[in-house]
Amino acid sequence: MRVDLHTHSSRSDGTDTPAELVRKAAESGLTGVALTDHDATEGWAEAQDAADEVGIRLIKGIEISTVFEGVSVHLLGYEFDPTHPELVGELDRVITSRTERLPRLLDRLGEHGIEINAEEVLAVAGDAAAWGRPHVADAMIAKGYIADREEAFRDWLVPGKPGYVGRYSADLFDAISLVRAAGGKTVIAHAWARESKKKLTAEVLGELAAAGLGGIEVDHPDHDELARAELTKIADALGLAKTGSSDYHGTGKGHQFHLGANTTDPEQLARLLG
Ligand code: AMP
Ligand code: ZN
Ligand code: FE
Ligand code: FE
Question: In whole angstroms, how far apart are CA 108 and each of 99, 142, 153, 164, 211?
Answer without folding.
Answer: 15, 19, 15, 8, 39
